[in-house]
Each structure stands twice: as structure tokens, then as C-alpha cells.
Amino acid sequence: MSHSPAALRLDAESLAGGLPPLLVEAEHLAASVLPGAHGRRRAGQGDEFWQYRAATGSDPASRIDWRRSARSDMHFVRETEWQAAQAITLWVDLSRAMAFSGDKRRADKGSRARLLALALAVLALRAGERVGLMRDGAPLPARSGKAQLMPLTQALAVDTDGRDYGAPGLALLPAHSRAVFLSDFLGDPAPVEAALTAAADRGVRGALVQVLDPVEEGFPFQGRSIFESMGGAMRHETMRASDLRARYQDRLAQRKDRLAALARLTGWQFTCHHTDTPPAAALMWLWHALAPAGGR
């Protein structure tokens, strides 16, 4: 299914536009978000005052805040907060598996993943961050500014890439940046594990968002059923589908546990989002998940 860039951007901006008031009300996020940038909450170059700390023997006299030190028997250094623009790289699974929906009235997994990715980009770009996109052949480098929205929209508003299941490549992500992978993660987990390991080696932190249709969770099938992959490469017929439910749900739970364990090991975060639930909650979770560790 193709997606209109204008419609996708309109939907994403509408979703993102309703989220900032919720973020302001959230105490833990408001403390870490600064106007125009994520608050890093660590010492470095910047204009915003962060904290005073006791001076050490390695601090030059020029760094001493003499006015603050005059009120104590100790010398204090005035530290500012580091506010460099953060790079966020997105990867959205565009495989055939993501075109699945268990109900024609419900968005397919790919449409929901695209919407979340672009809405997050809208928020990040408004906050002064740089956003890029991983994709085969022609990745979009992370850039800031509203002009980056249209290339992102056009890159996401495409048909499926022809593969039954997708996986992120071993792209050289900017060191100490952030990344978000959105997929059903139902294919071979090895490429995902390799990508996260490579990212962690470069100090990249981020979030895995598993997007599933509720039918894939509940497995409501009974009697004679034919299961076929979206690309037609795999096909299985059974006369008693209900007999498969327990084994299927156990394997799905194992896959979720594996993803969650991988996220913990690499310093990432993991969540599962269902297409029959409002996307705003998942977007808010993502925004918080990308906040610096000191702000969570």
C-alpha cells in the first residue's frame, strides 16, 4: 500500500501537536527538556547554569566563582549545562510483514510505525534536534530544521521493500547519539542483535518499538485455518488452529523477552505497541525514552 506524503505528514503533525501539553505536565520529562533542546544534565559548554560544586586542586583559579565562595569556607566552581543538539536516527521496518492488519478498519503495522516515526521527528525537530533515517542504499543523514521533514516524509511514504521481514542494517550511527527502531521484530532476530551490539559499541542509546496487531497477540483462530506470510513465501494449513494457540503465544512471549533482554544489555529501552491502541501514548513513551539518562 502506498502512502500520500502530504497525508502522512498531516497525520504525524496532528499527533505530535497534541503531545507537548502532556509532556509539560509530566514532572520527570519537564525536568529534562529545555526550550529548543534536550537538557543533558551534565557539565559542559553552554549558557544555562546547572550547579555549584566544590573546587578541586585541578581547577584553575579562573573557574572559581568568588561570589559564591565568599559565603563559605570552601571554593566553588560554577558549572553550566551541556546543550549540544542531539542526533536521532530512525529505522522503520518497511517489509511486507508490516502491511498486515487483522481488521480492515484498523491501521496496518507499517502505517502505525511510519506515523510514530514521523511524529517523533516533528517533535525532535521542533526541539532543535537533528533527525536522520536509516534505509538501504540512501540513508538520510541527521539534520536539523523544518526542511528535514519533507525528505523524511517522502522516504517513509513508500510501498513495502519486497522482503517478507525487515531488519536494521549495520549503519555507522553517530557516536553517543540516539536511535529508534520500529518493527514487529518477528523475523530472524540475529540482524537486530548485531545492529544493537554495533550501536552500543559506539555509545548509541535508544528504543525498540515492537508494533503488533492485536490478532497477533490473541491468536483468535479456530478450526480449519490457513496461515500465509504477507509475501506468500510461507504457508501452513491446520484443521485445528486452536491447538496452536498456546505454543504460538509462548513463542511470542519468548521473542518479547529476548528483545527486552537485548535492550537491557545494550542500554536501550523496549516497548510493545498495539495498533488498536491510541498512538499518543507510544509517542510520549518514545519522547521520554530518548531523554538523557540523567533526566529520567
TrEMBL record:
List, for all copies, the residue spans of the domain called DUF58.
58-256
| InterPro entries membership | DUF58 (IPR002881)
Question: Which PANTHER family does UniProt cross-reference here?
Answer: BLL2464 PROTEIN
Q: What is this protein called?
A: DUF58 domain-containing protein
